[in-house]
Specification:
11 helices; binds magnesium ion; binds ligand C2E; 8-stranded mixed β-barrel; 20% strand; single chain
């Protein structure tokens, strides 16, 4: 059952909410138990350059392959891990998987950058930057192949230490992306403090934006701002050809979303890279 699920593309996997028996969230103990049994997997969602349709990388998204409930999306376990101070366990699992995937892709002649999600509030321990770098280098990967997508889910407390970690990670060569730009605590202020390399417009602004005057203005302004800051602009949640075309004509650099592909396992990503013809 487990093997069968891992091998499947997400679009054919049952959504966790589709069955009445699947809980909408799990207890901390259940989650740690899943972690001890190596049930956390990395799925990958392609990121495509809009001007050429070429794949530039993929976002690494955590999935819990639950023995009874199938593939569980992150909303059912991320908050619990963050609140109990254990989110870095998941960060390191995903970094290891990203590094291994990166190496496998490089061996197949695919130079992709893989984006790992990291919550800003978990970057308070100042040894973290060197530990993250160690994991990537030990796997034989140069940090320039890894982008860290930073999300701010709660107000930052230990600002000085978080900024120190981010500055070091950037210095060691990692890409830094400001994720979910425009929502929550992910604010303008971050941009002035950290040398980000990428701005990722939240899907809340992207879905159906081509037909919506105010959303078009917000998206265009975000693209222009990123370019003036000399950083790449990525749009997430691109679900239609219309949105793809509009982003392309507006000069956005990279797109990610269901229009291109849903998150998939590593084998499917390898197939995707080889099959991919320009959009
Ligand atoms: P995110 O980093 O903003 O990731 C994008 C989310 O949008 C993913 O949800 C992805 O599956 C979904 N998505 C992609 N394209 C589309 C689209 O066209 N339409 C719609 N409606 N959704 C789309 P997912 O995988 O459920 O992840 C949710 C969030 O959980 C992520 O948002 C991220 O903040 C967090 N997350 C995932 N993996 C990790 C992880 O390893 N560590 C941490 N700290 N957070 C993670
Ligand atoms: Mg992300
Ligand atoms: Mg995002
Ligand atoms: Mg988001």
């Amino acid at each position: 059952r487990l093997q069968a699920l891992i091998g499947q593309h997400e679009s054919v996997c049952p959504k966790p909410t589709a069955t009445s028996t699947t809980p909408s969230s799990f207890t901390f103990e259940e989650i740690m138990d899943g972690s001890r049994h190596d049930q956390f997997e990395a799925f990958f969602q392609p990121k495509l350059e809009l001007s050429t349709g070429r794949i530039t990388g993929a976002e690494v998204l955590a999935r819990w392959i639950h023995p009874n409930h199938g593939v569980i999306a992150p909303y059912a376990f991320i908050d619990q891990l963050e609140q109990s101070g254990k989110i870095n366990d998941l960060t390191f699992i995903m970094l290891e998987k990203a590094a291994a995937a990166c190496r496998q892709l490089l061996q197949r002649g695919q130079t992709l950058s893989l984006s790992v999600n990291i919550s800003l509030t978990s970057l308070t321990d100042t040894t973290l930057a060197s530990r993250i770098t160690q994991v990537i280098r030990n796997a034989g990967i140069d940090p320039r192949h890894i982008i860290l997508e930073v999300t701010e889910n709660a107000a930052m407390t230990d600002v000085a230490h978080v900024l120190e970690n981010l500055a070091r990670l950037r210095m060691y060569g990692f890409g830094l992306s400001i994720d979910d730009y425009g929502t929550g605590y992910s604010s303008m202020q971050q941009i002035t403090r950290i040398a980000f390399s990428e701005l990722k417009i939240d899907k809340a602004f992207v879905k159906g934006f081509a037909e919506n005057g105010p959303l078009r203005i917000i998206v265009q302004s975000s693209i222009d701002m990123a370019h003036k800051l000399r950083i790449k602009c990525v749009a997430e949640g691109v679900e239609t050809e219309q949105d793809w075309d509009a982003l392309k004509s507006m000069g956005c650099d990279v797109a990610q979303g269901y229009f291109i592909a849903k998150p998939m396992d590593l084998a499917s990503l390898c197939d995707f890279c080889e099959r991919k013809v320009a959009l």
